[in-house]
Amino acid sequence: MPSFVKMATLAELPVGSAKEVEHDGRIYAIFNVDGVISAIDGICPHQGGPLSEGEMNGTCVSCPWHGWEFDVRTGQSSLNGKLKQPVYEVKVEGDDVFVSVS
Description:
By secondary structure, this protein is mostly beta strands. The chain is built from no helices and ten strands.
């Protein structure tokens, strides 16, 4: 059974925003796209760019360093069908955003 950790509040994640959170040595990128909260691994696999700082286009984020793109809902790369970022389950309870860490 997954373990969930509070990583943000809805006030910290207005629509169209992202937040980077470190937990147990892992970097998570949490996004609010049209009121839907998603979480993926926050480090771009290319050269370690911070995905939470990337530009959003719909549900895709572009790494700010070299432009690699990932869908924040699925983790799938739009540039390479074999490349996928880990996606983490999200639960919103009241104003708190919890992300699965197991």
